[in-house]
What we know:
Rossmann fold, three-stranded antiparallel beta sheet
Amino acid sequence: MxxxxxxxxxxxxxxxxxxxxxGVAAIRTLLEIIKNDSSSTVQELDENFKIGIDxxxxxxxxxxxxxxxxxxxxxxxxxxxxxxxxxEECKKIMSDRGLLFLKKLNEARAKIVKLxxxxxxxxxxxxxxxxxxxxxxxxxxxxxQKKRFHVYVTISAPDRSGERIANELQKAGIACTLILDxxxxxxxxxxxxxxxxxxxxxxxxxxxxxxxTYTIGLCAKExxxxxxxxxxxxxxxxxxxxxxxxxxxxYKYTKHMRERDLKTQHPLVDYTPPTYITLLFTDLGIxxx
Length: 289
């Protein structure tokens, strides 16, 4: 596939399927590369994977999920390269394993919803930040079970994604209040727990997520409120930041932002250390950071 074809395929998934995350879209794009590949050697195929990943990383979508998803996918299919008689056989096995991997990912969100939903009871007051698909599905499922609860949603600047999830919650019949990002400290005493998603989970157990998540973590810790993170295991990434400055620029800024003076740009994500996280709800189970 040509670079433009890869970019178009990847971006089209995210534009037309709003419930698909950037990480899953990246994995589906790698499967499409295998399907259309004309390489005659494993080395050529590996090079085409690298080109595909580079193209996706240079779009204006979250790099965190793209990196972790592609890395885990390639590790999952890697043994197909060993002891195969032909490149075509290798591609066939890679494709089969990739589809199996994708199936597991598609089942992951339902497992998380089932685990996290148990923590929502009648009268719960929940604070959430940004628009997490798995958090939204968890809240919807809890509402279907006739649980009555209230959700405080931050506006989530700069893209105001909180407004979107607030509208979706209201359509599902869930009581919610849209608040300013700067009002987190004010409403913290009213909530029972915080429930957010994550763009990535780093090796320390901390998370990379929408800018402002770290601030909420600090407030929650100070006021002794449980801070729950709902995330799929394919978002686990091999990164070990110790501070905000340790996050690579490609994680914090889009391609277009990196082409400008970064001193004038606002980061899109921040790092929340594990000390501020109570539990991680994943498709592997409930984990402590």
